[in-house]
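From the shared-data thread, chain only:
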Amino acid sequence: QLQLVESGGGLVQPGGSLRLSCAASGFTWDAYAIGWFRQAPGKEREGVSCISSDGYETNIPDSVKGRFTISRDNAKRTVYLQMDSLKPEDTAVYYCAARTRFCAATSDYYNFWGRGTQVTVSS
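Structure, as tokens:
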């Protein structure tokens, strides 16, 4: 059974850092692109990063460019989202999702989802 599990969320002060992890099981890991999305209360789900199955393509939107970095460790079947210089507006539930090979711009194109991890940026 395909499964994605996020971890690493928590409470952090503005300007701080967190590293989220997305661990996968139950499918051919290196055939899938992994995206990170977030959703704040009352707002639409927003893509914040994606890495293709071969690791060569990474997409970072302007809203987090220069602060968020995505990477994958195929041996550990894990994708990481390093988040630096966090702002209160980064507060949301963060989800990872999988689709075959290439990144996609919107969440509709992702087939498998984790349950999310809460990130709260507050002083």
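The mean pLDDT is 93.
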